[in-house]
Structures are given as C-alpha cells and as structure tokens.
Amino acid sequence: MNDSPYNKLPNDIKRKYKIVYSELLCDNITMFKNKDEKWGVLSSNKKFGLFNFYDFLIKPIYNSVGFNKDLKLIEAVKYENNIWNQDNNTYFYFDLDGKLIWKSETGESVQIDKLGNILLNKANKIGILNKDFTQRTETKYQRLNALSTSYFKAFQYGKYGIINKDDVIILDFEFEEILNVIEKNKVIVKKNDNYYSFDFDNNSLTELPFTKILNASSNTYKAPSTESLKYYKSIVDCKENEDYDDYNLEMIRYQGKWGIINGAGNIIIPNDYSFVDFLRNPKYFKVCIGEIEVVDYEDDDENYITSIKNVKWGIVDINNEIIVPIEYDWIDEVESIVWVVYKGGTVFYNDDYQEDYWTIKNAKLGVYNLTKLITPIEYDVIKKNWFRIKDYIFVQNGKNYFDDNSTEYDVFTLEGKKIEANKPKPKDYTYYG
Length: 433
Known about the structure:
Elements: H1 11-17, E1 19-26, E2 29-34, E3 39-47, E4 51-62, E5 64-68, E6 73-78, E7 90-94, E8 100-103, E9 108-112, E10 118-122, E11 125-129, E12 143-146, E13 151-156, E14 159-164, E15 169-175, E16 177-178, E17 186-191, E18 194-199, E19 204-207, E20 212-215, E21 231-240, H2 250-253, E22 254-262, E23 267-273, E24 275-278, E25 284-289, E26 293-298, E27 304-309, E28 312-317, E29 322-328, E30 330-335, E31 338-343, E32 346-350, E33 357-361, E34 364-369, E35 372-373, E36 381-382, E37 393-396, E38 410-412
Antiparallel strand pairs: 1-2, 2-3, 3-4, 5-6, 6-7, 7-8, 9-10, 10-11, 12-13, 13-14, 14-15, 16-17, 17-18, 18-19, 20-21, 21-22, 22-23, 24-25, 25-28, 26-27, 27-32, 28-29, 30-31, 31-34, 32-33, 34-35, 36-37, 37-38
C-alpha cells in the first residue's frame, strides 16, 4: 500500500489540469503545481456515490501554496512580477472550504509558529493576530517569540521583556537576553551580565550563580536530541577567549567549570567539569576533567590545526553517576549506549570540507556497552558510517580508515563476545543514509 501523499491524482486529472506535481493535504484536498509553474488546490467529492469528481478549491494563479496542519489553513502567495520578495509578495489564507480568511496589504507578512500563534510582520514590526486574523496587538515589536501559549518574549528599543497575548507587560523591557524554555513556570533572563530565574507565579527574580549559559549543542552527529533542548550548558567562573569564535569551538572559547541546568535554572549536572557535551541519547553526557590546553600548529601539509591536551573524558548519566570512567583521551558515541574510548593520540578540530567537528588521530581504541568494556583497547580503527555502528563491532589494526574489503579484522557482539568462526562481513552491516 502506497501511503505517500505525493502525485496520487488520477492520470486523467493530471492531464486535464496539466499537473506536474501534487500533494494530498488532508482527506479530499490536494495542492498542485501545473506546467505554467502556478499553484492551486483541488477538492474531490463522490459523484453519484460512485467516483471522485475534482474541482478547483483554489484556482492555480499563485506562485506557491502551503498548508498549516495545526490550524488547517491553506497559505497561497503571489509574487510581484513572479519574483519572490517578502515585502512585495501578497499573502492569502484560506480555510478548507476555499473561503478567503485574510489577504495581506503591501509590506505585510504572516508567520504561524509551532504553538499556532499568528504573528503579523508589518514594516519590520511584529504584532499578534487572533485565530480569525483580526488584530490582537499593535505591530510594534522588533522581535516576538512565543515562550508558551500564554507568554511572548518581545524585543523593543534594544531590550527584551515578556508580554502576554493581550500585550500586558509581564516583565519590563530591561533585559539583554531571555532564554526560550519555560520550566516549572520559570524562565531564565539576563540583566547587566547577571542571570536570573523569573517566576511567573509571583513575578520574582532569583539570581543564578552562572557566568555563562549556552543553548544545548553537541560535537556528536545528530545530537542533541529534541528532548535535550529543554536543557542548557552552564558555566561558573567563565573566562572567554574571543579568538575562538566559531560555534563549534565553545569548548576552548569558554574556560571555567561546566554543568547542565534546566529552563528554571535548576542544576541537572553540577559544575564540576572542564566541559560537558550533549549526546544523541538525552540520558547521558560526555564530560572531561583537567585544564584544557590549546595547541595550534601546522601539520606536514601546512594545514593550520587546533588541538587540545591535558584532559580526560568519560560518560555520566543524568543523575551525574559515572557510566564510563573519566580516564580516556577521547570518546565517541556510536549507538544509544555504545561508546568508543581512545587512549593516546591527538584530539584536534577537523575543519576539512563539510566536516567541522572534534576528533582524534593516532590513538588506540576500545568499545563500551553502557558500563562494560566489551573489546580490548588495542585497535586502530572501527567501522562506522554516518558516525554509527550497526549490530556488530568491526575493528582493525594497521589502517587509517576501516577497510571493508580486507579479511583482516576482528568482530565482536554488543555483549562483548569475539566471533572467530563464520565472521559477519562488514559490508553487510552498513547504514545507507
């Protein structure tokens, strides 16, 4: 059974309306693009109870069409002279009966956020619309982001404040920063370089002990997970080196004691570490101890390399219990609770084309499954693709990269059993995207 929503219209309907692309939006409603590069919407109904009859819900006169599933609204856009320009486009919103709900005036555009709030942008100022597109607040803010269904973070005259949907000021416009997560009806704010937890219940501010708070981020591919985005990295006694201003270099840009906090400012992982990093699995964190020393040098090919030394790495869980001892020179997450540990070698920042991550070279590696070391730490390379392993652990020596074609490799189960006879073949355990 084909569950794809794309290009499901009958061939005679495609020919009749010269359709080159279509997408089923819901039930009997399909948006489409025709040979003239114009977009419209079709609806289908049973005729005589026997077959589908298709007709225009929205005629194909638009340059683009979209659909908001939450509010069940169809957005259509006309470009002036067929050239996209946010300020010159005309935006139309229709209900599922094809009735026009709202049409923009010149210089107006609308954004519907993930909470279903409708924000109107007019002359680079933003306000809130009701669900029927009538005006709820003035368009007077330079930035406006929903913190919840009730509260918005607003930016005006160079400062942030908090308003509700009726434009009542909840927190005065005195703050340099307001973070995006409300936890236990509290949110973290920053004023005069100090962080506070703002309590919506009693409108009080409680100072927090951190000198720097950063959004959840990770050196690990496809991390952090969505679940981790409710947390932040926190630093006490932070010293900043602005020479390392790249997003991926926060480990060496900010020196201090790192930990993890939630959106209310409560400590999840104490500030005991030289660095803390999120993983794909939101229940675990990669941590290091020691004083990070940065070494910049040129390699034999005259490439400029940034490396670190003097730290040891381990894994802790969300209760700060040590899962992998903090004694290794580097660690990679390769599955939910499977980690590659390294001894020796050089940890460096790989900024080759389309790379941009920290890694290690010239080290010996082994593998942990949760708290158990399941291979000896004696190998040069491990088979990974898309930075993951699949079902087995394939390892080799004498190579810079794992060689799928070589018969010289060891293979272990995830329980740590070494397979000697009838070894699985590495090529059979590969992810393809």
